[in-house]
Write a structure and sequence with these properties.
The complex is a heterodimer of chains A (547) and B (457).
Chain A (H helix, E strand, L loop, with lengths): L3 H11 L16 E6 L6 H14 L4 E5 H9 L13 H24 L4 E5 L5 H14 L2 E8 L3 H12 L10 H16 L15 E5 L4 E5 L4 H10 L9 E5 L4 H4 L11 H17 L5 E4 L3 H8 L6 E2 L16 H7 L1 H9 L12 H17 L3 E5 L1 H12 L15 E8 L2 E8 L20 H4 L26 H35 L3 H14 L18
Parallel strand pairs in A: 1-3, 1-4, 2-3, 4-5, 7-10, 8-9, 8-10
Antiparallel strand pairs in A: 5-6, 7-11, 11-12
Helix pairs in contact in A: 3-4, 10-11, 12-13, 14-15, 17-18
Chain B lengths: L3 H9 L15 E6 L6 H14 L4 E5 H8 L14 H24 L4 E5 L5 H14 L2 E8 L3 H12 L10 H16 L15 E5 L4 E5 L4 H10 L9 E5 L4 H4 L11 H17 L5 E4 L3 H8 L6 E2 L16 H7 L1 H9 L12 H17 L3 E5 L1 H12 L15 E8 L2 E8 L21 H4 L8
Helix pairs in contact in B: 3-4, 6-7, 10-11, 12-13, 14-15
């Protein structure tokens, strides 16, 4: 038991970590990343992914999509004619939009404390890039160009289907119209496109990505952040695949309500491992890799799968230091100040002689990099670790991360799609304790009662209050996938599948007492039987993950 | 449900490659390409050192060495003339011999990566290597160095060629002239990797010592790591200063680990360090410490900005934290013996191993490569790991490298290696170095175990 007074001064210094990335040789110069490329070359995909990655590792980053500014200015998009190089009015508006976006960039980097801004636009002319460079020089920003060059018509068509058809620009068009207009739009840019030139632009810092990552040209990487960006861009790919995340089966310490430690599986945990094996086999996944941590409970879970698996020390659970193997009540009794400090800032709080979530993110970064390189993969890990990984894939903030729900005996299947990630949650039907502790309502240090309000070791109803929802974080994932699905399978079969889909969701939501999938499916159903082709579905841009 | 083999593994605490994921199943051949004096051997040696340090068994095969063994005495550049049939035959035979040794390394010695260091400037030669690798099932990754800056080339020649066995008895101007003509022999038949015709090959082209890179078809994790590493190294002259914190209170008591402050002598050292650093007159020095009090207090005395890295924290001794060696022998005699048996891989219960340390120090090494002048104030085990990287020490020597308190090591990369200068700042401190005892058996008696423990209060 530590002396509470001593706890105060010392723990204030050591209790909270500083973003490890920020403490590594950050120059004072903010960085402006500028995308370059014809439409449908993946610029926005790269921008969003890069922004998500940089924010996750602790570098405040924001993207500025000039197309958004144009939509706000123009309100209604008529046709590709707006983008014709001889459309004076159009050119004027587009230049204004770029300027407005740059102004916001300046605001973000110079005033709001941002570190990186991603300027997402075609920037296909040397003149436009010259303007940006001058702007950056005036404001003391470093510039790094990311150019995407691709001539493969299949890749371009796939891009258009995945993200352009659902764009606000084409809400009122049918598929063929949209594709045709977009192709003409690309043509408008082609004649004036001046790619980054090896000779003329040899003093600029840039990476040219050719054919979706088959080849890269990297010029003049100036500093640590540019080096990390290049490394990241060279590791991502767009081959379709799924990432399965789950925790180990219920452990003996879980049952006792104790955190950390290195115990083995309980009887129910072993049952989960067996169910996991069946689930994986039924999923019929091609070339699945399996990763675990180096702790008994994940290894024992993976052993039941009967396939080779790799152990990563980086996937070990967060080290709770002096609080290892304690119950929350014991922590409250022995380290009340620590307990309260943790609730104040769970992301940055570091257990004495232990770790913080922020430390976890730093040690998980190589895992994320390798996950990006991989294809189908199952990661058997721990609660805090899974929260960090999930936050990366679903773009959750540091504030939300430590409170993401990752219940035992539930597998999350993440499938990257369009600009985001589709999440499917599958509870494998084996009961387990609930180990989730919500953010307490009152966070005053020393106030003991409320701090323990959410403690809930509930064996009977592990998913009380959990919703299982079909979620996406992009504007319109369901539309193009459903359209292509239906058109591929022929309308009769498609209708059968849609009916089955509807009733499964009905059943699932009954089990969880949540009706939101039903509303969504009903919307869908109406559109399927109605004039689907004329009215693509609209979804909210960002749906919160609720489990 | 306890799996029997799991218990056995925990007891041995020698999960060797467990902290490092499987990089690839097929061995990889890294093939250098480029005219002489383009830094191929420099890159080969550095890459080999880095890969071995992170735990990927790698070996370098320098065809020039094979040639020196075949042709005992080097006369002059005429050997390399493209019309010299006799020489051509010898050179081809040397390349074939080297390839044979590559096979032996992969199949008999469980090597993972082989670096084939030669000019490989013709398509024909590269085609031979490609078909050799295809036949054996090895992956091939080319590293081509292209440079036309005459100053860089001259500097290369000065730094490494003059000391070469080929030019042992020549004077400098003679050697320089001969070498330039040697380069010209290759130039006529040099066919760089072609971006069009070779688009199916995996390669990285390095232009002008890292000004620009072209990367094509990276196949797997190890190639991605190699590319990342190559893009972070540079040849700008600089020095790396490594030092431990000043003597700490726990050091005096002979206790390991913990997070104590400096002793009075330790504080004196911090001041002496400040004086020393000022005296060295280092341009743009960066200072790094760990998150532990003793390194931070040492850095504070310097009066300059410093950055704290959690990755530089001392090895976590788990249940043995803050114990003396005598106490460890008393409470955990078996653990103590296991550690002496394999100090590199041994992991303290609830703690770390040296192998884990290397894994967590890898980002530090990568950043050290990017930086120029740096002073790293760290701890004994950490300093051993960093030193082993720079001085290419293998895993069994690493845990026994001498890193005494109150001594600064100045590392200056030079030619193919690292020059080391050691500065003892004349402030007395306890000795914390424990040599490997003679008897490492689990059943040894306490005197044998504690034979090499240094003195303390």
């Amino acid at each position: 038991v530590t002396d509470n007074n001593k706890e105060t001064a010392e723990s204030k210094i050591w209790s909270f970590s500083v973003s490890p990335f920020l403490s590594v040789c950050m120059t004072n110069c903010p960085t402006l990343i500028v995308t370059v490329g014809l439409p449908a070359r993946g610029k926005t995909y790269i921008s969003k992914k890069l922004t998500r990655y940089l924010n996750w590792i602790g570098v405040p980053t924001k993207e500025f999509n000039v197309g958004q500014y144009r939509r706000e200015c123009l309100k209604i998009y008529k046709s590709f004619e707006f983008f014709r190089p001889d459309n004076e009015e159009g050119l004027k508006i587009r230049r204004q939009c770029a300027m407005a976006a740059l102004n916001d960039v300046r605001q973000y980097l110079s005033v709001e404390g941002g570190q990186v801004a991603v300027f997402d636009a075609t920037n296909t002319t040397r003149e436009r890039r010259g303007t940006i460079i001058k702007f950056a020089e005036q404001n003391g920003f470093k510039v790094f160009f990311v150019e995407s060059v691709c001539e493969d018509p299949d890749v371009i068509a796939q891009n258009i289907v995945q993200v352009k058809l659902g764009s606000p620009d084409y809400i009122h068009c049918n598929t063929e119209e949209a594709i045709e207009d977009f192709m003409k739009r690309i043509k408008c840019y082609e004649s004036s496109y001046q790619p980054l030139d090896e000779v003329l632009d040899r003093d600029l810092s840039y990476i040219k990505i050719m054919d979706v990552g088959r080849r890269y040209l990297v010029n003049r990487v100036l500093d640590h952040i540019q080096s990390r960006i290049v490394y990241y861009l060279m590791n991502i790919h767009i081959t379709p695949r799924s990432i399965y995340l789950c925790r180990h089966g219920e452990s003996d310490l879980n049952i006792k309500g104790r955190i950390g430690g290195d115990s083995g599986l309980s009887a129910r945990g072993t049952e989960f491992a067996k169910s996991l094996r069946k689930f994986i086999q039924d999923q019929n996944i091609k070339d699945l890799k399996v990763w675990t941590s180096q702790m008994k409970r994940t290894i024992q879970t993976a052993e039941c799968l009967g396939v080779p698996y790799e152990q990563w020390k980086s996937l070990n659970e967060i080290d709770a230091g002096v609080c290892e193997e304690m119950m929350y009540e014991e922590i409250q009794e022995h380290y009340p100040l620590e307990f309260a400090l943790r609730d104040q800032d769970k992301y940055r709080y570091r257990y004495p002689k232990g770790e913080s979530y922020e430390d976890l993110v730093q040690r998980l970064e190589p895992v994320i990099m390798e996950l990006e390189r991989q294809e189908n993969i199952l990661v058997v890990c721990h609660q805090a670790v899974m929260r960090c990984l999930l936050a990366y894939f679903l773009d959750k903030t540091a504030d939300e991360l430590p409170y993401l729900k990752c219940p035992l005996h539930t597998v999350l299947k993440l499938t990257p799609m369009a600009y985001g990630c589709k999440v499917e949650s599958v509870y494998l039907g084996v009961d387990a304790v609930n180990t989730h502790r919500d953010r307490p309502e009152v966070r005053i240090p020393g106030c003991t009662q409320k701090c323990l309000s959410a403690e809930d070791v509930d064996i009977m109803n592990p998913h009380k209050g959990c919703d299982i929802t079909y979620i996406d974080t992009s504007t319109s994932i369901l539309t193009p996938s459903l359209i292509s699905f239906l058109s591929l399978s022929g309308s009769r079969h498609g209708r059968h599948h849609a009916v089955f889909f509807f009733f499964s969701c009905l059943l699932v939501s009954q089990l969880c007492r949540n009706w939101s999938p039903i509303f969504r499916i009903t919307q869908l159903w109406g559109q399927i039987t109605g004039s689907l082709k004329d009215k693509p579905l609209k979804f909210r841009a960002k749906t919160k993950l609720r489990l | 449900m306890e799996l029997p083999q799991l218990e056995h593994v925990r007891l041995r605490r020698c999960d060797s490659a467990a902290s490092v994921p499987q990089f690839c199943n097929s061995p990889t051949m890294i093939v250098m390409v480029g005219l002489p004096a383009r830094g191929k051997t420099y890159i080969s040696k550095k890459l080999t050192r880095y890969l071995n340090w992170i735990g990927v068994p790698t070996k370098m095969f320098n065809v020039g060495q094979y040639r020196r063994e075949a042709v005992k005495i080097y006369k002059n550049f005429e050997f390399f003339k493209p019309d010299n049939e006799e020489a051509m035959r010898i050179r081809k035979a040397c390349a074939a011999a080297a390839l044979k040794d590559v096979t032996a390394y992969f199949t008999k010695e469980q090597g993972q990566v082989a670096v084939f260091d030669a000019t490989n400037t013709t398509r024909e030669r590269r085609a031979i290597i490609i078909s050799f690798a295809k036949e054996k099932g090895y992956k091939v990754f080319f590293v081509e160095s292209i440079c036309d800056d005459p100053e860089i080339i001259a500097e290369n020649i000065r730094q490494v060629k003059f000391g070469s066995p080929d030019y042992v008895d020549r004077d400098i101007d003679e050697a320089m002239e001969d070498f330039i003509q040697r380069i010209d022999c290759y130039r006529a038949s040099y066919m760089p990797i072609d971006d069009e015709r070779d688009r199916k090959l995996s390669y990285i082209k390095i232009f002008d010592v890292g000004n620009r890179y072209l990367v094509n078809q990276v196949q797997d994790h190890i190639q991605s790591r190699i590319v990342y590493y190559l893009m972070n190294i540079h040849v700008t002259p600089r020095s790396i200063y490594l030092s431990r914190h000043g003597e700490s209170e726990l050091n005096l008591l002979g206790r390991i680990g913990g997070d104590s402050g400096l002793s009075p002598r330790g504080q004196k050292y911090a001041n002496a360090l400040a004086t020393f650093i000022k005296g060295q007159n280092i341009r743009d020095l960066k200072v790094w410490t760990s998150h532990m009090k003793r390194t931070i207090q040492t850095a504070e005395a310097l009066g300059v900005q410093y950055e704290q890295w959690k990755a530089l924290n001392e090895i976590d001794a788990g249940v043995c934290e803050e114990m003396t060696y005598e106490e460890i022998q008393e409470n955990y005699p078996e653990e103590f013996a296991l550690r002496d048996q394999d100090k590199y891989r041994y992991r303290y219960p609830k703690g770390e191993s040296y192998e884990d340390l290397v894994h967590r120090l890898e980002p530090v090494i990568m950043e050290l490569e990017r930086q120029e002048n740096v002073l790293v104030i760290c701890h004994q085990a950490i300093m051993r790991c960093l030193l082993a990287y720079f001085l290419d020490k293998p895993a069994d020597e690493l845990p026994y490298l001498r890193c005494p308190l109150h001594t600064v090591l100045k590392l200056t990369p030079i030619a193919y290696g690292c020059k080391v200068e050691s500065f003892f700042l004349n402030i007395e401190a306890v000795n914390t170095h424990r040599e490997r005892p003679v008897n490492v058996d689990i059943n040894r008696n306490p005197e044998e175990a504690l034979q090499t423990v240094p003195d303390h209060i």
